[in-house]
Structures are given as C-alpha cells and as structure tokens.
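Support request from a user on the community tier.

User writes: "When I paste my structure tokens into the form, the page sometimes reloads and wipes my input. The last time it worked, I copied everything first. Here is what I submitted, just in case something in the input itself triggers the reload:"
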C-alpha cells in the first residue's frame, strides 16, 4: 500500500467524514472510499464502519491506526527535517488567529516574511473559533487565553495590556469618569463573552486591591475591530487590548481613561500564545515563523 493511502485513512479517522476529506483534497468522495477499500483488501480486515452520518473505527482499525499514526507523522517530519537542514522551508504553512489580531498584528508582517521565504506558501485563517489543529491541518495557532486541549504545546508570544478608552467626542458629551465605579453611568461597549460583557475589573495602583465594576451594556459586538471603530466614532467606552488600540491612542482618536489602573475582564487571560500540535519535532517552517513574529514584536516595542 502507498503512504498517500495511509494519509487518507488518517484524515478520514480524524475528520470522521469521507466528504470533508474529499473537499480538502479536491477529489471525489468515491476516490477516498476506494483508497480505504484498497487498504482493507490488502490487510484482509475491515477498518471502518461507515454510516450515513459518521465513520467509526472497528477494533482492528483502532489497533492499526494506533500503530501507523506516529509512523506516518515521522515520515512527514523526516522530510521537513531534510528541508530544514537545507535552510529552505517549503510547502504550505497554515496559521490561524482571531480576525482582529490576525488583521491588525499578523497580516501586515506576512508580506516581508513571504518575500524572505518564497518557497513557503502562507495560509492565514482568521476565525474566533477554537480550530482543531489536527483535523484542520493547522501548523500554528495564535490564541489568547488558556488552552482547551492539554495535549497541545503553548509558548508565550505576547502579554496584552487592557485599557479602558473612549473618544474625545464621547468624553466631551458625556463627561470623563473620575473612577472605575463611574462606568455604571456610561455607555460601555462590550464583547459577547460571559467574562467580558458583564464585569470589568481594575487593580488599584496603591494597594493592588481588585475593584470589580458590573456593567449593563447597550451595545455588544463580536469583533474587536468593530468595537474599536464604534468607540472612535463616539459610541461609548471600550475595554480593548493595547495592540488593537495603540494607533488610535497615538493619533488622539481615543483617550486612555484610567492609565494608572490595570484593567481586565473577569477571568480574561492576558497572554497571547503560539499553539502547535504536541510533537517531538517542531517543523522548520513553524520555528521560522515564530522566530520572525517574535523578532518583529521586539522591533515594534523598541520603536
């Protein structure tokens, strides 16, 4: 049997769907089915139980996949290791990040990165969903907050600082809050997360005491860039990360209302991390892009 067939088998097992694998590979579902059948005929056992809605491993299939999965991965890693030794990363590098962070922070850096590594195709997928790295064939995720899957590897990339801001226009019309508790009398714009749209916390600069402020928001938006635009246009007060609002602060289109306080939403993790599958060998292309993004972040901090 061919390695390509084994890769198809693993993809079907991970996706639990013939059609999804076929769409990813731009082939017909019948082609995927023929590959699986060919493996089963050569082995003389049934590996998968197929239903109209799902694909389930048989007991023999489970034992077989457990044995071949690491071997197939090692073959891919061996190929990447050769490319790494040649200092020529090739193939496709699939990255996922949130729409706001990807658009504001990552996308502007990719043009120069692509120029440096012309044989590497970068595929940036922007979504707020926690994508399954294995089933979606993602090489690197850039996420904020704790890991949902402990089998993945996380490396800190940046630590965000949250700031409470409003436009000069809004503050001229509605007044500037003198203390965090005054926010209850203002229009606060929020993000639709339970820990974000109900309570903002402030750490007192003198005694480190946490001051919780409960909110009732008249406007909730599920995109950070849209929240930013709304605040700049005088819509209200926002709590957003420094990487998203720094340009607006520098331009004077937003004002940091409580610069002396550390601000954060309830249980909101400030670390932004690189997330990648748990492997004994990290592909060269992943190492290279992480190093490039870290170097770029350092350069931005020092300017």
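"...and here is what came back when it finally went through:"
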């Amino acid at each position: 049997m061919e390695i390509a067939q084994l890769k198809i088998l693993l993809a079907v097992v991970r996706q639990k769907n013939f059609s999804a694998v076929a769409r990813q590979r731009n082939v017909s579902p019948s082609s995927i089915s023929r590959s699986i059948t060919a493996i089963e005929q050569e082995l003389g056992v049934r590996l998968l139980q197929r239903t109209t809605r799902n694909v389930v491993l048989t007991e023999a299939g489970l034992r077989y996949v457990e044995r071949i999965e690491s071997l197939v991965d090692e073959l891919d890693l061996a190929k990447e290791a050769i490319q790494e030794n040649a200092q020529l990363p090739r193939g496709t590098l699939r990255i996922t990040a949130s729409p706001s962070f990807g658009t504001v922070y990552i996308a502007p850096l990719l043009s120069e990165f692509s120029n440096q590594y012309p044989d590497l195709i970068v595929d940036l997928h922007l979504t707020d969903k926690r994508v399954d790295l294995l089933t979606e064939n993602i090489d690197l995720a850039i996420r904020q907050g704790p890991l949902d899957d402990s089998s993945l590897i996380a490396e800190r990339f940046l630590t965000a600082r949250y700031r409470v801001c409003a436009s000069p226009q809004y503050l001229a019309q509605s007044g500037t809050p003198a203390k965090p508790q005054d926010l209850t009398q203002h229009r606060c714009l929020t993000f639709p997360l339970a820990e974000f749209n109900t309570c903002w916390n402030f750490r007192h600069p003198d005694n480190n005491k946490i001051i919780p402020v409960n909110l009732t928001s008249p406007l909730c938006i599920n995109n950070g860039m849209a929240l930013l635009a709304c605040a700049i246009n005088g819509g209200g007060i926002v709590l957003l990360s420094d990487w998203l609002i720094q340009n607006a602060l520098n331009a004077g289109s937003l004002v940091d209302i409580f610069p002396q306080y550390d601000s954060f939403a309830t249980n909101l993790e400030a670390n932004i991390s690189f997330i990648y599958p748990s492997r004994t060998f990290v592909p060269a292309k992943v190492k290279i892009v992480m190093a490039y993004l870290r170097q770029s972040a350092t350069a931005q901090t020092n300017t």
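Agent notes: The reload is a front-end session timeout and is unrelated to the input. The longest helix spans residues 59-85. DSSP finds nine helices and 15 strands in the chain. Escalated to web team.
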